[in-house]
Amino acid sequence: MPREPAATLTGPHARAPRWVVAGCGLIATLILSEAIARLEGPVVCASDTAVLLAADPEVGWTFVPGLTVAVQGCSPDRGEKAWPMTVSINREGLADQEWPFAKRPGEVRIVVLGNERADGVGLDRADRLSVRFSHLADRVRGARVSGINAAIPGYTPREALRWLVRRGVRYSPDVVVLLLDPVRDLAASIDPPRIEPVPATDPPASGLLSWAVPARRVDGAPATPPAGAVRIGEPRALASPDERQRARERTVATIAEIAAAARDAGATLAVAVAPPCPAVPYETDLCDAIAAVAPCADLASAFEEVRRSRGDDAELCVAGTGRWGRDAHFVASHRIWSLLEERSLWPTAVRRGYRL
């Protein structure tokens, strides 16, 4: 019987040198890290408005349209850094997803106005105030609620009014919520915020480094601010009882204008007095004056309850940014929803769900 030939292996007779394998692995790692870095954008401090804000001829200033950065809270005093969160700015200069102007059938829209206190920069998207309104709605028994985040650093009620009239009404809002900063907004009614252009100070990377995003993270920020970058000057503190009274009157008058603009757009308006971060004393009777022109709720008591129950574990502020933390957005969303419900400011199709 003829004998079958022995099986033989086919293929390369020698392995590639280890340095070739290591080199290919290094190149693949660099390409992957570059791709991830480009998706997340440069890491910047949330307080660095020279990177986040740009001048806008129609509404004064907005976030930089189309910007993507990985934002973290930076506290220079203690050197604290939080894990960075990716923030993407839409084409309209809002820290939000892209929103078509036309609503979907059955959709209810709520627009949130204010400053950086509740813009959600530095938080997971699901924890932001505007998104939480969507999560609190019962979509089975009622309408879909979409929250549009129009809170922009440095804005006061006057800037919020300008944005609402010139851009916000195009979104056909059903409800408008104004978050009132009880310290800065009153001061700004006497000493309006100033737009300060920021020139480019550092030369951009050159050669191959010009396209390598990790190479532009040496100091935690892009090499140069974007075109038209601005900072917003802080108003001076109110100096006398007379100034405080005039500030209250002007603020209430501006809120009355916002209420009229919302009404003309077919929307209702509610005001929430937004406790500062870090906490500082402020006039707690503001809602008494505002109530004449719009329903109002002061969130101070709700925040204080969180402080008492959770102590040092309460995430009410993001260190070094002046922004609300996760717990603050959670508490504010429930309290504001209750105000809208109690005053019948929601369209009748909206139902509150049971999700946290």
Question: Would you mind describing this structure in some detail?
Answer:
It is a single chain. This protein is α/β, with parallel strands linked by helices and 356 residues long. It has a domain at 100-192 and 236-342: 3-Layer(aba) Sandwich (Rossmann fold). It is built from nine helices and 16 strands. The protein has a five-stranded parallel beta sheet, with helices on both faces. A hairpin with a 4-residue loop joins β15 (317-318) and β16. Mean pLDDT is 83; it is low at 33-40, 77-81 and 202-223.
Q: Work out the helicity level.
A: 25-40%
Q: Pick out the low-confidence regions.
A: 33-40, 77-81, 202-223
Secondary-structure element series: HEHEEEEEEEHEHEHEEHEHEHEEH
- The second-level CATH architecture of the domain at 100-192 and 236-342 is 3-Layer(aba) Sandwich
- Major beta-sheet overview: 5 strands, parallel
* Shape annotation: globular
The CATH superfamily of the domain at 100-192 and 236-342 is identified as SGNH hydrolase
* CATH fold-level assignment of the domain at 100-192 and 236-342: Rossmann fold
Q: Give the integer mean of the pLDDT values.
A: 83
Q: Major sheet: order of its strands?
A: 9-8-10-13-14
Number of strands: 16
Cα end-to-end separation: 80 Å
Structural class computed from helices and strand pairing: alpha/beta
Cα Rg? 25 Å
- Count of runs of 4 or more consecutive helical residues: 9
CATH domain class name of the domain at 100-192 and 236-342: Alpha Beta
Beta-strand proportion? 15-25%
Can you tag this structure with a few keywords?
356 residues; alpha/beta; Rossmann fold; five-stranded parallel β-sheet; three-stranded mixed β-sheet; 9 helices
